[in-house]
Amino acid sequence: MSVNIPEIFGSNVFSMSVMQQRLPSHAYAEVVDVMEHGGNISMATADIVASAMMNWAIEKGATHYTHWFQPLTGATAEKHDAFISRPEDFHTLLRLTGKQLIMGESDASSFPSGGLRSTHYARGYTAWDMTSPVFVKEDSCGTILCIPTIFVSYHGEALDKKTPLLRSMEAINAQALRILRLFGNNQTKRVFPYVGAEQEYFLVDREKYLKRRDLIYTGRTLFGSPAPKGQELDDQYFGVIRYRVGKFMADLNEELWKLGIPATTQHNEAAPAQHELAPIFTMCNLSVDQNQLTMETMKRVATRHGLVCLLHEKPYAGVNGSGKHNNWSLGTDTGENLLDPGDTPNENLQFLLVLSCIIKAVDIHADLLRCSAANPGNEHRLGAQEAPPAIISIFLGDQLDNVVSQIISNADSIRLLTSGKLDSGVSTVPVINKDGTDRNRTSPLAFTGNKFEFRMVGSSDSIADSNTTLNSIVAEAFCQAADVLEHAEDFDSACYELIHDMLRDHQRVIFNGNGYSQEWVEEAARRGLPNLPSMVDAIPALTTDKAVELFTRFGVYTRSELESRAEIMFETYSKVLRIEARTMIHMAGKHYIPTGLRYVTQLSQSLAAMAVCPEACSDVQRTLLIRCSSLISEANQALEQLKALIVQVDAMDNMSQMAATYHDYVAPTMAKLRRPIDELELLVDKSMWPVPTYGDLMFEV
Ligand code: ADP
Ligand code: MG
């Protein structure tokens, strides 16, 4: 199979160059102007654009269009409408009007709103987000023209993840420009956050997947004993890609490239059947859209290959879960990366100011950053020795850390540790320059050369919340710095003093050691850093006075938008745990306990048969019978407890109390049910076991 990348790349995107070709020049100029400077396009131009867009899509085989948006479920939403109007008049049969392009009105009552919109005010509006390109999606139901939109209520409150993200991008743009102006930069017109999201995932055979109700209903296994082999040999990471997986990856790349998504890197990850894909970074809002499309495309392409793509953060206990590394930096329209230290960061005042603002922002709003990566699946991953702990800290690496220490201790002149050469000792291999920073995979927020890598985000989650948070907290720190420095008489010394003070006051959030260790948990407590192990602990961060002050000041969220999001998060947590608990009840009651009982019956029948033949050795049967019976009874007890608990929790009406009860009581009871069944799996005859095991799922892809 040969793929011509230049030919297919972006072929399904209504890109700027396609627009330039297909639109009259005045319409194109108006679109560009609105994209760059904001404002509204005229209805006359919207009609022209819509018609050109539809014709382009029809040439690609499209029959429908949709406003494509990102409600608070964390997934994407779409409702397809055919390009048909007035079927009695065949001349106007195919139509997309400017109005249809720009705005849609839909019944929003079935999307989570957290009380922002009571059911009798059901209107929700989708509005075209011109900063993200329109594309066509080739789906099993045909080819669909997708128009990226935001989604707001009748009163303009954000009902989606995209609106606050766009607002946060405006905030950081405005504040970063103030910083640049302080350094005499008057050319830059815009500053954008840039993001590249590395995406981890698992693949599983579809036939086997369909035999597991837990995978179907919850995306993760709720039962299962570890396979004899896990990831202990480290032989999977970067290993040779298996044939079927390779076919999937090739197909996936092609689909992503058509959508203009620059998927570049692919490799096997640490756990068996786990893989990773990384694209080239792009502007933050586009990156959020592209990541959503990537996840969606992964799932669709997997089906074609008889596979299922598991995006859950922890599909299997005992091996690594999946995350998403959100690489974040700030770039200007003139091509400068504000996080690039240059060769002499010690002398780069602008870089040091930007860096210290970020350190301050992260220290002050660690709780919000933690909360931005909270989802029910990530509970199983954060702090589990495979992903960063739930404590937020920053890794700077030796070189920068040393610069920071010198600044804090008021060193006369700030010197730079040389990173040196790397000599492998093999004469035929060239000596290479080392990076200024090593890697630290245990840190939630690592400086990696010219960007920060936020490593906490869960694999199934949208990256919108994390970036909205990063943009907003850094905008605040920039704003406070600009407030001081804009009035300074001696800019250089005032700037240096401010950098010094910020680093001194917020150095506690810098940690270059092992984030997986218990010592760090203790040390972080001594430093007063928040440790929010569970999502339930993290959600209240959204509605503190500090958070409300931050987000309302920069117009990112209103107070009621924050309260509604907290409400939805509590509700989601409870709902997910309820589904998991009910799935366990189903599987234990219908699959495992009946199987155990059949096996026990078989054992007792064989013992009874042996009773007539006293010389037969019956020890094995007897021991198995006793152990299995006791495990079944243990499981049955936990099952009854779980059933009773669900009934009790269902009667609660306070969302945060309900979530706390799920966390404190339901989750431990689920673990109590799992334990005896996982042991039973190791004892019962494999041919009787009702579902594929971990070995079947992870090693037969
Ligand atoms: P790794 O983290 O495995 O070392 P890279 O550093 O090459 O991999 O990049 C990981 C991701 O970071 C990629 O998606 C890449 O495009 C993105 N990235 C690289 N530079 C930047 C940047 N300046 N801003 C945002 N993302 C970036
Ligand atoms: Mg990485």
Calculate the terminal CA-CA distance, rounded to whole Å: 22 Å
Low-confidence stretches: none
Secondary structural class: alpha+beta
Rg, alpha carbons:
28 Å
Q: Count up the helices.
A: 22
List each distinct ligand once: adenosine-5'-diphosphate, magnesium ion
Helix content: 40-55%
User: Which word captures the global form?
Assistant: globular
Beta content: 5-15%
**What is the total tally of β strands?**
18
The biggest beta sheet is recorded as:
9 strands, mixed
**Averaged pLDDT, please?**
92
Describe this structure as you would to a colleague:
By secondary structure, the protein is α+β, with helices and mostly antiparallel strands. A hairpin with a 5-residue loop joins strand 9 and strand 10. Helix 19 packs parallel to helix 21. The structure holds adenosine-5'-diphosphate and magnesium ion (MG).
Task: Summarize the SSE layout with pairings.
Layout: H1 5-8, E1 13-14, H2 16-22, H3 25-37, H4 43-59, E2 62-68, E3 81-82, H5 98-102, E4 103-107, E5 123-128, E6 134-139, E7 142-153, H6 162-182, E8 191-205, H7 206-209, H8 213-218, H9 243-258, E9 263-268, E10 274-279, E11 282-283, H10 284-304, E12 307-310, E13 324-332, H11 349-364, H12 366-372, E14 394-395, H13 398-408, E15 421-422, E16 432-433, E17 445-447, E18 452-454, H14 464-485, H15 491-506, H16 518-527, H17 535-538, H18 545-553, H19 559-611, H20 619-650, H21 655-683, H22 694-699
Helix pairs in contact: 3-4, 6-14, 9-10, 11-14, 11-15, 19-20, 19-21, 20-21
